Amino acid sequence: MAPEGVGELNAILNDNISGIREIKAYTREDDEIKRVGKGIDNYRRSQMKALKLMAIFEPFMDFTSGIGRLLVIFFGGRLAYQGLLSVADLVAFYLYLDVFYSPIRNLGSAWEQVQESMAGFERISELLVEEPDVKNTATPVSLLSHNTPEICFNNVSFHYQQGEDVLRDINLTIPAGKVVALVGPTGVGKSTLVSLIPRFYDVSSGNITFNGIDLGDLDVKELRSQISIVLQEVFLFHGSVKDNIRFGNSHASDAEIVQAAMVANAHDFIMQLSDGYDTLIGERGVKLSGGQRQRLSIARAILKNTPVLILDEATSSVDTETELLIQEALERLVVGKTTIMIAHRLSTVRNADKIVVMEGNRITEVGKHDELIAKGGLYYRLYSIQQRLN
């Protein structure tokens, strides 16, 4: 089996299966059928090429082995007739032919299997040679205490590609136990900024400190154990409600899970499910609504109970009633934690201790809600627009 086209076909099929709703919504079925058909044709051609080679190799081996047997019988028979070779030796030579040709046939089959394995090996080898971008130092520093930390950005710049800064000269202090909100237009680097705190990426220049210790000097696993994240796009695992909440703390008891769900305003809807906390929610939580998945994510963060909390658009994709339930849960969750909140709905950040306005990969305004309104800058314009829309 030839490796050509296997990886491409698998990628196309994966895209089509995962994105079936988008394909149907945009009525692109015919186009995608053609794209899959093209991938199948490429794979079929590579398969046919391999099969033609094997169709030549195997008959050739049968032909040569047949010629070998014929020669042994012809010349050996003459020698045996003349008394120069015993019949037993003739039979032995005949049997030796199978011993001689068997490894060659096996080599042909092995080569076919090697070609088949190469399809997967090409992609696996790409992963094997990859080096992680984020590494621990040779002697990582351990946090002396797990108290609520102060986080400071000092002249931080970051880029995914050289010369294209997503963040530039960011100076920001997030006080211990306070709520800091990041607002601004789409694409200014808000999500990237909070992704630097758990070291999903390392800064390009400058540094970030965690209670005065450079993040680059901390053990990555220990650092992330101090941070809980609630994202806009919630990822739930195939399993029960209980398993997904317990993902935040594998040692939590059932009583602690129920308590976390209550704080997250999730207990009531969980009890209405067919098997309560043991209900299987399907792949990525497909059996739950968006608001229900979000509240399970919050319960998971509550159960982890870390001193740092990151909220990335946690209420942007739900209805007003569900938003109120989630907002109530978040208000309980942020108490006593260093919290970084990203929000486009400015009504959700009015009570933040500090609001940071970003524009064009920089911080342009910092202050409380009333202070920023009084300045009449970008925050005021965004807030005014949302008020008119409401």
Q: Give the % helix.
A: 40-55%
Q: DSSP helix count?
A: 13
Contiguous runs where pLDDT drops below 50 for at least 5 residues: none
Largest beta-sheet characterization:
6 strands, mixed
Q: Order of strands side by side in the largest beta sheet?
A: 6-7-8-3-9-10
Written overview of the protein:
It is built from 13 helices and 10 strands. The chain is elongated and about 120 Å long. The strands form 2 sheets. The chain has a 6-stranded mixed β-sheet with strand order 6-7-8-3-9-10. It has a 4-stranded antiparallel β-sheet with strand order 2-1-4-5, with no helix packed on it. Helix content is 50%, strand content 16%. A hairpin with a 2-residue loop joins strand 4 and strand 5. Helix 1 runs antiparallel to helix 3 and helix 3 runs antiparallel to helix 4. It starts with 5 loop residues before the first helix and ends with a helix. The protein has 390 residues and is of the alpha/beta class.
Short description:
The chain is an alpha/beta fold. 50% of the residues lie in helices and 16% in strands. It is elongated, with a radius of gyration of 33 Å.
